[in-house]
Amino acid sequence: MRLSGECALARRVVWHAQTGSTNADAAALAEAGAPEGCVVLADHQTAGRGRLGRSWSSPPGTGIYASVLFRPTPRVARMLTIAAGVAVAEAIENVAGLGPVLKWPNDVYLGGPPQSGRKVAGILAEAGLSGGETWVVVGFGINVLPGSLPHELAARATSLDAELGRPVERGELLAACLVRLAERYGDLTEGRCPDVLDAWRLRAMATFGRAVEWDDDGVVKTGVVRNIGDEGGLIVDTGSGAATVVSGDVRWL
Question: Which end of the chain is more exposed for a tag (fewer CB within 10 A), N or C?
Answer without folding.
Answer: C
